[in-house]
Amino acid sequence: MSAASRAPLRSNRSNRTAERIVERSTERTADARARVRSRAARAAVGAA
User: Fold this and answer.
1) Measuring CA to CA, which residue among 36, 33, 13 is closest to residue 25?
2) Global pTM?
3) How far apart are CA 30 and CA 46, in angstroms?
4) What is the DSSP string of 1-48?
5) Where are the domains of the chain?
6) Cα dihedral across residues 15, 19, 20, 24: positive or negative
7) For residue range 35-45, what is the model confidence (pLDDT) as tens digits?
């Protein structure tokens, strides 16, 4: 195995961790949005 053939694996690994971080942050924002939506829905029900 040469260093050149090993390099792509390393970059793939870092790409995967970056993808995971992005997935986690999008999950968090989706959760926050869902919470805001449910709160708004409850407020609308309470007002009605």
Assistant:
1) 33
2) 0.48
3) 24
4) --HHHHHHHHHHHHHHHHHHHHHHHHHHHHHHHHHHHHHHHHHHHHH-
5) 1-48
6) positive
7) 999 999 999 88
